[in-house]
Specification:
Elements (H helix, E strand, L loop, with lengths): L3 E10 L3 H12 L4 E5 L19 E3 L2 E2 L3 H10 L18 H6 L5 H20 L4 E2 L14 E2 L2 H15 L3 E4 L2 E8 L2 E9 L2 E11 L8 H8 L6 E3 L10 H8 L4 E2 L5 E6 L17 E3 L14 H13 L5 E6 L1 H4 L15 E3 L2 H8 L3 H14 L40 E13 L2 E2 L6 E3 L5 E7 L16 H21 L2
Parallel strand pairs: 1-2, 1-10, 2-7, 10-20, 11-17
Antiparallel strand pairs: 3-4, 5-6, 8-9, 9-10, 12-18, 13-17, 14-15, 15-17, 16-17, 19-20
């Protein structure tokens, strides 16, 4: 079969928020642009298509309070900005430290904070509407906006804008390797529905992580790969070719390849993001019938990822949240239950354990010990960490305390939802500059190669909530502008 050659100025790999932002920005600057998308047209958009796309913004004109500090704190392993002593960790004064350790780049973070508001204004000018939409979190550590209509609205609106600017979309087209010339990266070799083809031009990689590739998941995450799945079917198209292509040319990496953004979901459901965020108001029980984690260390939006990882560490990577009628009566509780499958219910704890296939005696003993440790105070407040903590559980650490919202699980009938970890996106990715240039292992920018979105590494110990779509749009736009400028000056 004859290999075809297509000549463009900019070739964008991936059609999610990062890729579409890059394509539109490059086309606006006069570049001839192609978008290569593995999926069929009806499924285009990757993870963006299926997410609510929350954005860590105070308003459309300003990022949320503590935006840069939160990114640094999550890298350092702190739970949220409220527990960090500024005298110990002033991020601005510590920027040399982060550069020296080749981890989080303060210039990248500063550019994200500075460029996010104008990026949203730019998208608004193209018809994407942003507002303060309902979230699934009953307790929150930050402010959030979202596109009206979620990520699908971004895909549809920016896709239409791109087509209007003359961007050509090639669906069912999988990038396989980067092509190279004396000038640097010069294009992409791809497999298309019509056969092999080369797409010439500066390249923007925006093809997401590798959560849809079982081999890469096993390579980087070991046995954990067996007890998680992509959080939405868009993630199944993320096979990691963008990462592998760049690494083959000597690209550097960033982010933690040992972790991924974990979300607690109901494994029975096939819905996108069938999340279960109600566990702070109940107890989590593993297959042995025991509690294993503090279910309520703080606001659920700041802590759910670490709790989900604790669930994944349990036998078969599964746990159940058990709620009584008091827990089920928490106002707006079901906003944090996104599954379409009803809970397992029973009139008594023993009966519930039996229906769940858990050891009845162990579950009954666990609930009795927990109930005895709950405070008698009536200061329960589900909207803020209320300090109602357990007292009197095992002092050897074998039974974790519960720091907030501790009330006896005593009022039947009882309900339980299973929870497993879903892979929203992988943390490890390509290292890029604040100009969205891919960096090689010697610290030099790779000429003609740019990257944005979940393919690029940023997060190390914890996902900084509601920043993924925001940085995809922001650095996608930057990548498109810079790729077009590079080709215009060639």
């Amino acid at each position: 079969m004859t290999e075809q050659t297509h000549r463009y100025d900019v070739v964008v790999v991936g059609g999610g928020v990062a890729g579409l932002s890059a394509a539109v920005a490059a086309a606006e600057d006069g570049a001839r642009v192609a978008v290569l998308e593995r999926s069929p047209e009806a499924e285009t958009g990757g993870n963006t298509r299926h997410t609510e796309a929350f954005l860590r913004m105070k308003s459309a004109e300003e990022v949320a309070d503590g935006f840069e500090d939160a990114l640094v704190d999550d890298f350092m392993g702190h739970p949220d900005p409220s527990v960090v002593d500024d005298a110990v960790l002033p991020p601005r004064r510590q920027s040399a430290l982060y550069r020296a350790t080749h981890t989080i780049d303060p210039d990248y973070v500063a550019t994200l904070a500075e460029s996010a508001p104008p990026t949203l204004r730019w998208m608004s000018g193209h018809g994407v509407r942003f507002d303060f939409m309902p979230t699934p979190f009953l307790t929150r550590s930050t402010t959030r906006m979202a596109p009206v209509g979620g990520g699908l609205a971004i895909v549809e609106t920016m896709g239409k804008v791109a087509r209007g600017l003359g961007v050509e979309f090639h669906f069912e087209t999988t990038a396989r390797r980067l092509t190279f010339s004396e000038r640097g990266v010069s294009g992409v070799f791809a497999h298309t529905s019509g056969g092999p083809a080369t797409f010439e031009g500066a390249v923007v990689l925006a093809s997401g992580g590798y959560q849809g590739n079982a081999e890469l998941m096993a390579r980087y995450h070991g046995d954990r790969a067996l007890t998680c799945r992509p959080v939405a079917r868009g993630g199944n198209y993320n096979k990691g070719e963008g990462l592998e292509m760049a690494l083959a040319l000597g690209a550097a990496t960033a982010g933690n390849f040992a972790l991924f953004h974990a979300e607690p979901v109901d494994p029975r459901s096939g819905e996108a993001e069938a999340a279960i965020f109600c566990f702070p108001y109940g107890v989590l029980i593993n297959k042995e019938g025991r509690r294993f984690v503090d279910e309520a260390r703080g606001t659920v939006d700041a802590w759910y990822e670490r709790t989900t990882r604790a669930i994944q560490d349990q036998t078969d990577g599964i746990a159940w949240v058990i709620l009584d009628q008091q827990g089920l009566a928490v106002p707006n509780l079901m906003a944090g239950v996104r599954t379409d499958i009803p809970p397992v219910t029973a009139g008594g704890i023993g009966e519930l354990a039996s229906r769940l296939g858990l050891p009845v005696a162990a579950v009954e003993t666990t609930i009795e010990a927990y109930n005895a440790a709950c405070p008698s105070s009536d200061g329960f407040d589900p909207t803020i960490p209320d300090g109602l903590a357990t007292d009197g559980l095992a002092t050897d650490g074998s039974v974790p305390p519960k720091s907030n919202w501790s009330r006896p699980i005593a009022q039947g009938p009882f309900a339980a939802y299973p929870i497993m970890a879903a892979n929203v996106f992988t943390f490890g990715g390509l290292k890029t500059t604040a100009a969205a240039e891919v960096v090689d292992r010697d610290g030099r920018s790779m000429t003609g190669l740019y990257a944005a979105g979940e393919l690029t590494g940023l997060y190390y110990s914890n996902y900084t909530g509601s920043t993924s779509v925001l940085r995809g749009a922001t650095f996608g736009r930057i990548a498109g502008v810079n790729a077009a400028a590079f080709m215009a000056g060639a």
